[in-house]
Specification:
- The structure holds two protein chains of two kinds.
- By secondary structure, chain A is an alpha/beta fold.
- Chain A has five helices and six strands; from the N terminus they run βαβββααβαβα.
- Chain A has a six-stranded mixed β-sheet with strand order 2-3-1-4-5-6, with helices on both faces.
- Chain B is an alpha+beta fold.
- Classes of the chains: A alpha/beta, B alpha+beta.
- Chains A and B meet through strand 2 of A and helix 22, helix 23, helix 24 and helix 26 of B.
């Protein structure tokens, strides 16, 4: 099984506003766990996972970045050489969505590959239900969805990105997001 | 027979030979040829081959005849000679293999030909088969083709001289008719197609745009010589122009050409076409320079090996030598501003080169350095060293250059966007161009080594004297640029920081004593231990960072405290260094040293103690309208923070590798976070200093606002209160943020430990530069050289040439790949340079042709575009038709080209007294504008019954070509085999 195909190493990047769940997505993908008490990333973090896409094994070197403004002087250095990028926003935070343009600019400026494959992930769709049982209480629920699926899809289309909605908490869409990205990346090399 | 007749078989065919034949639009272009050169077959096997053609029998019954008689296939521009001579598209050639004897005897030839005939008859193959006889170079082919009821003989006559009586149409017609010996009388008329080819070789009257540079004159080297890569061919890349005038399908009665009279005036010819012959690989400057330069990448010699011979004493440690050189410079008391003159002197004195053995003579070196570092000139007060005349010239050049680069930028911005080189006209870019020129014209690899050494010295000089390197993009290293560019940017970052410290030092005219970074004595003791290292103390552990923007009074700069602790030698060195500095700085420096004194006296001042009641320090600006959580009404301030450390891509790679090596375990992740928390700690400390009595909540609201969760609660009275708290993840006990926050002391930015050690980084860069061998230098300069070369090519403005466009597309793609490859690969660059040379050749050819046509243009009604597109077709296609022949606009221009050449040839041939201007001017429009044709071709065709009067008529054809020393008749004579 190990010899069945050549192992390629792909550099994948995860970016997005702070607190949108970048590290949680990664943790869900690599360890299939969810830790609500994951501390805020400092600088960049790094994880490795080997996956099989289309019968080809690929070793993913995934760089997880801190979303804080201040770290943005530091983290873009790691954009170099990335073949795929996962751009994350929080469906329950309008602000994390409106900032996406800035992140794309950042990517444009610092990534060295011009054909980098981009995947937009709307995280935290588990919050959609937000546990409110009565209709009249919905308005008072802070955590409800602020960005519809359509909005996300539109943005992704406009900027030629793959798109998926996911939840690191419920596992929904996470595996799929990474696999689709890798599939597209392996087609571009 | 099987042995001796083993023959090479080649089959030629063209796709458009299906009956009924559609006249091909461009017979020359579509004619395809398959040469089965390697197949060695015996005649017997050949017969099997022929049977394959049987099935086509019905279709291509008279393909050979059609080909023979079709005027479409007359004078194809590029094809097999048999196709040219017999007009055939499909044929089979038998020729002796490489080891075989040539067929020299007639009996052997006839034996073969009769075998061929039998084979053709047996197989029913209608494709003509040829046998090559005699020496290969004579290209003598005899052949047969069979067609039910008919057979065609292909015969050939080849002579080295043209017999006088057959040098014209009349004579050739006689030969043709005699050969046919038509049994009917009068013989049917012969149709004649004639083509005369005229040669134009004399281009002396057309200014060749490229003036070959004079490399021998060392005296008059302008600065432009180093700024632009040379371009162009040293010789005219266009050698000949052939004009072919064609008279197609005339009846023999209509034209007369014999010994004394000729109807064939090229001006009257209905059809003209021209072809140009190019000089085989003319010497082109750009290609030459580039290929020479790329060869440099393969050299293995080190700088020392190359230069040691010319050095008086081997250079030992650079640092020591430089400082000696510097102190030597400072001996005369009043030193002017650091001019390049002094730089150069210091450098050369350091190298201690025997003047006569230095690869680059001193005055030339000065000019080059001045070109590379133009900023040294503006400071220069030393007029002796810097020639003002040259200075002016360089000014002109730089202005005109920026203009041209501007237009160039617009054109090729997109193209260069992906290039990982350096901006146009930046220092590395100019260095690359300069090195390329130095290597080619001023001494090769030794000169490159020499100039590089000087360059590295200049870099060190600039670092030690805090003079910014000119013409580099400001800011952190741009990773979209080549590594060399990044390294120089890095050095500039270091210099900038160093300047910032120095500025802070010098402005400390009224030093405040309340806040001191540490006691100077402490620093001194630390420093003494490391005294031998370097005079600068900045690499010291105890070093503190001084903030640029600080409006507060500067603390005592540790740098200066070393004066007290350092020995005499150190002081002297510092002094000498200082003396190097600008005049305008001198006064302040003097003042400062006084201050130093006073500071030293006050060194007993107690050190700073961290208390909660400390005064706020290092505030940048109020942050929005946020107030501290603990102290209502107290404004939250954004602190002044340290700039992140600039990094070059190799440093980053190293760091990424280290981080990745920590693995993916939670310990690894923790360690990784800790490693990167230095910046966080520094920011927290600055924040604490700026906001006394702040909490992590305050910090988070500034630093990571999304980790401050606010909730609106409505109390019983209906009053809405906003309650905020740290996000869940920030509240986890023992998380890194909390941990760092707890360990952070309130320290303003300027007293923090530096995140970026400019001295260390500068030394690293300087070491990197100094360790490069000439080959490494060349390799590192490759991206810029390629970039400059492409820019040079684009600047020629010939981009409309289709062949150039394709080539440039390829070059750009390959260049981008080569520049972005993790390792600079000489092979790839060599390939690129070859392609660039090719592009240069295309351009020089186009330019040469364009100039020639343009000079005879005068009043001819032809647009620039039409002329340009004509030139580009001439480059792309072997032969170009002239619309309207002699009467078309291009025809007129071509006629003038010939006339000018003829006129000068005539004048040249006349002796002085015979020269009569009138005669020549009056004849200028006559056909005497043309020289005698270098080649005459005739195709005679007729259809006559042979061999008997009752035979059916069959096509007959004779092709004649008359060159200066080559006379060839190729006849295809058909006979009726049924009615004979």
């Amino acid at each position: 099984m190990d010899d069945q195909s050549i192992l390629t190493t792909l550099k994948i990047l995860i970016i997005g506003e702070s607190g949108v769940g970048k590290s949680s997505l990664l943790l869900r993908f690599t360890d299939d766990t969810f830790d609500p008490e994951l501390s805020a990333t400092i600088g960049v973090d790094f994880k490795v996972k080997t996956i099989t896409v289309d019968g080809n094994k690929a070793k993913l070197a995934i760089w997880d970045t801190a979303g804080q403004e201040r770290f943005r002087t530091l983290t873009p250095s790691y954009y170099r050489g990335a073949q795929g990028v996962i751009l994350v926003y929080d469906v329950s935070s309008k602000q994390s969505f409106t900032q996406l343009g800035n992140w794309l600019n950042e990517l444009e400026t610092f990534s060295t590959k011009h054909d980098i494959v981009k995947m937009l992930v709307g995280n935290k769709i588990d919050k959609d239900q937000c546990g409110v049982k009565s209709y009249w209480l919905q308005d008072q629920c802070d955590d409800r969805r602020e960005i519809s699926r359509d909005e996300g899809l539109k943005f992704a289309r406009k900027h030629h990105m793959l798109f998926i909605e996911a939840s690191a908490k419920t596992k929904e869409g996470v595996q799929c997001a990474f696999e689709e990205l890798v599939e597209k990346v392996s087609k571009t090399i | 027979m099987s042995n001796s007749c083993s023959l090479l078989t080649s089959i030629s065919s063209s796709p458009n030979t299906v009956w009924p034949r559609v006249p091909p639009v461009h017979p020359s272009g579509e004619q395809k040829e398959q040469q089965d050169g390697s197949a060695k077959e015996e005649l017997s096997t050949k017969e099997d081959n022929g049977t394959k053609d049987n099935k086509d029998q019905a279709e291509c019954c008279s393909v050979a005849w059609q080909d023979m008689m079709s005027v479409e296939n007359d004078f194809p521009s590029r094809t097999h000679c048999l196709s040219r001579w017999y007009g055939l598209h499909n044929f089979i050639v038998l020729s002796p293999g490489p080891q075989m004897d040539e067929i020299t005897t007639e009996s052997r030839l006839n034996l073969l030909l009769s075998s061929v005939t039998i084979a053709l008859n047996n197989t029913g193959c209608q494709t003509p088969i040829f046998v090559q006889a005699h020496q290969k170079w004579r290209k003598l082919f005899y052949g047969r083709s069979e067609f039910p009821g008919f057979s065609t003989n292909y015969e050939m006559v080849h002579l080295k001289t043209v017999p006088q009586q057959y040098s014209h149409l009349a004579g050739l017609l006689d030969v043709f008719k005699a050969k046919l010996s038509s049994p009917v009388s009068p013989a049917p008329p012969v149709s004649v197609t004639v083509r005369f080819t005229y040669l134009l070789q004399d281009w002396v009257h057309y200014g060749w745009p490229q003036a070959p540079p004079d490399f021998d004159s060392n005296s008059d080297i302008g600065f432009t010589d180093f700024g632009d890569l040379p371009f162009g061919a040293c010789e005219d890349p266009v050698s000949e122009l052939h004009l072919s005038a064609t008279w197609p399908s005339l009846s023999e009665e209509m034209i007369v050409e014999d010994d004394v009279y000729s109807d064939l005036d090229p001006l009257q010819a209905p059809h003209w076409c021209i072809r140009v012959r190019m000089t085989d690989s003319p010497t082109c400057l750009l290609g030459d320079f580039l290929l020479d330069f790329v060869q440099l990448c393969r050299k293995t010699e080190s700088t020392n090996q190359l230069l040691s011979k010319s050095l008086l004493s081997p250079t030992s440690e650079t640092d020591v030598d430089v400082s000696q050189a510097l102190s030597r410079l400072t001996e005369p008391a009043p030193i002017p501003l650091p001019s390049l003159g002094t730089v150069v002197t210091s450098a050369t004195s350091k190298l201690a080169m025997k003047p006569e053995e230095a690869p680059i003579p001193n005055d030339l070196l000065n000019k080059i350095l001045l070109f590379l570092f133009p900023d040294a000139k503006s400071d220069a007060m030393d007029v002796d060293k810097v020639d003002t005349g040259h200075g002016g010239a360089s000014d002109d050049m730089s202005s005109s250059k920026s203009d041209s680069s501007q237009t160039l930028n617009e054109q090729s911005k997109e193209m260069f966007k992906q290039f990982k080189s350096a901006p146009v006209d930046s220092l590395p870019y100019r260095l690359a161009v300069c090195m390329c020129i130095i290597n080619h014209s001023y001494g090769g690899v030794r000169a490159v080594a020499h100039l590089w050494q000087e360059f590295v010295l200049e870099m060190r000089f600039r670092w030690e004297n805090s003079i910014l390197i000119p013409d580099l993009a400001a800011g952190s290293p741009n990773m979209g640029c080549s590594l060399l560019f990044q390294k120089l940017q890095m050095l500039n970052c270091c210099i900038e920081r160093k300047k910032a410290h120095e500025a802070l030092q010098s402005e400390s005219s009224t030093p405040s004593n309340d806040i001191l970074a540490s006691t100077p004595m402490e620093v001194d003791t630390e420093d003494n231990k490391k005294e031998q290292k370097e005079c600068s103390t900045s690499s010291d552990e105890e070093e503190f960072f001084e903030c640029v923007e600080s409006s507060d009074e500067a603390s005592v700069p540790p740098r200066d405290t070393s004066i007290g602790g350092g020995g005499d030698a150190k002081l002297r060195r510092r002094r000498s260094k200082r003396a190097m500095d600008a005049e305008k700085r001198r006064s302040s420096m003097k003042q400062k040293s006084d201050d130093d004194q006073s500071l030293l006296e006050e060194s007993d001042t107690p050190s700073f103690t961290d208390t909660l009641t400390h005064q706020p320090e290092g505030r940048l600006r109020p942050y929005n309208d946020l107030y501290l959580l603990n102290i209502p009404g107290e404004q939250l301030y954004v602190p002044i923070t340290q700039e992140p450390a600039p990094m070059t891509e190799d440093m980053l790679e190293e760091q990424a590798e280290v981080l990745a090596k920590l693995g993916t375990s939670s310990e690894g992740a923790h360690l990784r976070a800790r490693m990167q928390s230095a910046c966080l700690l520094s920011d927290m400390e600055a924040f604490k200093a700026a906001n006394p009595a702040c909490t992590l909540g305050d910090f988070v609201r500034w630093y990571s606002p999304r980790d401050w969760v606010e909730e609106e609660t409505v109390d019983d009275t209906g009053k809405v209160t906003v309650k905020g708290q740290l996000s869940q993840r920030m509240q986890i006990p023992g998380n890194m943020w909390l941990e760092v926050w707890q360990s952070a002391k309130p320290v303003p930015c300027r007293r923090q430990r530096r995140l970026f050690d400019d001295t260390k980084e500068a030394e690293k860069v300087l070491h990197w530069l100094a360790a490069m061998k000439p080959a490494d230098v060349a390799t590192r300069l490759m991206p810029m050289s390629v970039h400059a070369a492409i820019a040079t090519i684009i600047a020629q403005g010939e981009n409309h040439l289709p062949s150039l466009q394709t080539l440039l597309g390829q070059i750009t793609m390959k260049a981008t790949q080569a520049m972005r490859a993790p390792h600079m690969d000489c092979h790839r660059f060599e390939e690129l340079m070859n392609k660039l040379a090719q592009a240069e050749m295309i351009i020089t050819r186009a330019q040469s042709l364009h100039t020639k046509f343009n000079e005879e243009r005068h009043d001819v009604d032809i647009s620039d575009d039409a002329l340009s597109s004509f030139v580009s077709t001439l480059l792309d296609q072997p032969e170009v038709d002239i619309v309207g022949a002699a009467r078309g606009p291009l025809g007129i221009i071509i006629q003038r080209l010939f006339a000018t050449a003829q006129k000068s040839a005539g004048l040249f041939n006349l002796s002085e007294d015979e020269r009569d201007g009138e005669e020549y001017t009056s004849r200028s429009s006559g056909s005497s504008d043309f020289p005698t044709p270098v080649g005459k071709e005739y195709i005679l065709r007729t259809t006559v019954p042979r061999p008997a009067p009752w035979s059916r008529p069959s096509p007959q054809r004779m092709y004649c070509v008359l060159l200066k020393d080559d006379f060839r008749l190729a006849g295809a004579y058909s006979t009726d085999t049924t009615f004979q």
